[in-house]
Amino acid sequence: MNVPIVKEWGSWAVFISSLSAGLITGLSAYQWQAGRVFSIKTLFTVLGLSLLINSKNPLASTIRTKGANKEHLLWFLFFSLAGLAFLAPFLVDGLKPFSIFFLFIASYVILLSHGKEHYLVTELNGFALLTLSAPIVYFMITGEMSLRLYAAVFIFFAAGVLKVRVRLKKTLVFRWITAFYCSAAPVVFYALNIPVILLLPLLENIFHVLLMRKEKLKTTGDIELIKAVIFIVLIGLFWE
After folding, report:
1. Which of 52, 57, 106, 192 could be bridged to 83 by S-S, CB 3.0 to 4.6 A?
2. Rounded-to-integer distance, Cα 3 and Cα 71, Å
3. 137 pLDDT exceeds 90?
4. From CA 169, how far away is CA 196, in angstroms rounded?
């Protein structure tokens, strides 16, 4: 049996990093000590989110084949329904405050249905969904939704999408866009009262677009993974 597991390891790295950010910031809030039972509910939530991520490939295949691939349609139904079942503890309390984010799901499906899976806007939309795991886990621990945390995680990892695009396209336009994005991100962080030091790893993005050094795509992925780890460590040290 060929299980259509998502093998885009960069996506899993972003997902796990976002989960870690939500876990670290949630536990640092100490609100869970007020008697909130969160461990098993948080575990179910993580499992549910993981299953929903795996529904992406069979969904894309179902859309491309217009439902002709029955196997992938069944896998999509399995991953999505099982994922929603595990997410039930989160949905009981979190459905209403997080309902606005269903727009991201709808827009992602629409982009896939129009054959724009590898467009920049689709990749950013996908990362917006992956990084949503940070405020969801934070919510499961504290009972509160943190848009600041979501903004911090998404802005950081979206820079990685732009860097990879520069690595592939090597055009002056994307170099300028990436440089401007990384320069504007600290301003946004400051305006949202997010510690600007969390963006320290993005200095590498600016050096990359300025020097345009030659490196293998695997090397780029390894560098992005190291930066993600540094980002999580900085969150643990400086998040308030």
Report:
1. 52
2. 10
3. yes
4. 29
